[in-house]
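Severity: low
Component: inverse-folding endpoint
Summary: output formatting inconsistent between runs
Steps to reproduce: submit the following structure tokens with default settings.
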């Protein structure tokens, strides 16, 4: 009997969320961003549901190879470009489009021997201060690329730092427009937050939604995934494997962090931080037992968490526990709420799903 825990990937929800991205993209083409093994969902598992995308964007060359091996002949974009001159050979062989964000990547291209000119995405650092050319260096980089026989088309790209927050996109967008004025090439700017909140301004020629395709709201708790009409694409569920009845004053778990104020029945769930459940989720983190919303009590341990069963008096060993995603019937526990209770974001929970958890397509 396998340990009673599994993750489900909801193909229909992936297709629905991608369609939502397309709806907001105002005619722009849509990259499905599938880095980090499709945000923890598994590239091979999501591929069929997302093949309606115009391209796949990711950053690991091995993941790009996997997308090609699945038979995808359309665009594949390396969001961080090449890490080494030798990567250009793979770009040529697999026809990968790649980001150019620093001078050395242009040097590598200039030295690359190929008769197949490559499509590059020249990245402007418009304020995120991670990757990209500074505005004052951008046009010279464009001119250098434009003079290379190894380069076919140059698209223009930037990334917003606070599309989900108060700064929005206006200042970075204005800088991008000023810096790229008069340069030919397609534009790509928007991640999920920019698309959801500023789509009419930021859609451009290509959009790059990631988290919204995977059913997360980039601006939770301001807005929920349901508000944006996104559906959960991942369910993590387990079962109760034990129960305890506490008396007032009894404690639960390591560090005795939870102290019962009254008699309380609790359930023990076959899921812990070694499954990817966030250890920092404090007592009170929402969880569904038999589809009924309740809360965790005590610390998350490696293989178990403990939950308050007051709201689910019928619950017994074997009852279904939804850590996030779809519960029985219509019950849903948004992954964003669990992430928020753990002081993190849904991206991290999805990506942290542990290899020991069996995953299947639902
Ligand atoms: C360059 C770039 N574009 C798009 C995305 C997708 O972002 P999100 O998942 O917030 O939509 C990312 C993710 O971090 C990224 O780095």
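Observed output (run 2 of 3):
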């Amino acid at each position: 009997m396998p340990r009673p825990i599994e993750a489900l990937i909801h193909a229909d929800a992936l297709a629905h969320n991608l369609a939502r991205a397309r709806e907001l993209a105002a005619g722009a083409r849509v990259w499905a961003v599938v880095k980090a093994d499709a945000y923890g969902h598994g590239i091979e598992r999501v591929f069929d549901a997302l093949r309606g995308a115009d391209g796949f964007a990711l950053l690991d060359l091995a993941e790009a190879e996997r997308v090609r091996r699945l038979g995808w002949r359309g665009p594949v974009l390396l969001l961080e470009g090449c890490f080494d001159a030798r990567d250009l050979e793979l770009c040529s062989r697999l026809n990968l489009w790649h980001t150019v964000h620093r001078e050395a990547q242009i040097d590598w291209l200039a030295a690359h021997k190929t008769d197949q000119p490559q499509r590059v995405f020249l990245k402007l650092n418009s304020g995120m201060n991670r990757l990209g050319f500074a505005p004052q260096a951008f046009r010279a980089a464009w001119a250098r690329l434009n003079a290379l026989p190894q380069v076919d088309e140059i698209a223009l790209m930037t990334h917003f730092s606070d599309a989900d927050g108060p700064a929005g996109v206006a200042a970075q967008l204005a800088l991008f427009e000023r810096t790229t004025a008069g340069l030919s090439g397609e534009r790509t700017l928007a991640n999920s937050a920019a698309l959801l909140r500023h789509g009419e301004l930021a859609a451009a020629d290509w959009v790059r939604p990631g988290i919204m395709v995977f059913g997360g709201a980039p601006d939770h708790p301001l807005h929920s995934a349901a508000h944006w009409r996104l559906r959960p694409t991942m369910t993590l569920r387990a079962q109760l494997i034990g129960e305890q009845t506490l008396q007032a004053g009894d404690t639960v778990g390591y560090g005795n962090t939870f102290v019962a104020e009254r008699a309380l029945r609790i359930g023990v769930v076959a899921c812990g931080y070694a499954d990817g459940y966030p250890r920092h989720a404090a007592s009170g983190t929402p969880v569904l037992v038999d589809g009924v919303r309740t809360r965790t009590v005590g610390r998350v341990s490696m293989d178990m968490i403990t939950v308050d069963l007051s709201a689910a008096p019928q619950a017994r060993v074997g009852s279904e526990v939804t850590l996030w995603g779809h519960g029985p019937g219509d019950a849903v526990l948004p992954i964003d709420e669990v992430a928020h209770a753990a002081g993190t974001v849904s991206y991290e929970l999805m990506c942290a799903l542990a290899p020991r958890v069996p995953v299947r397509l639902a």
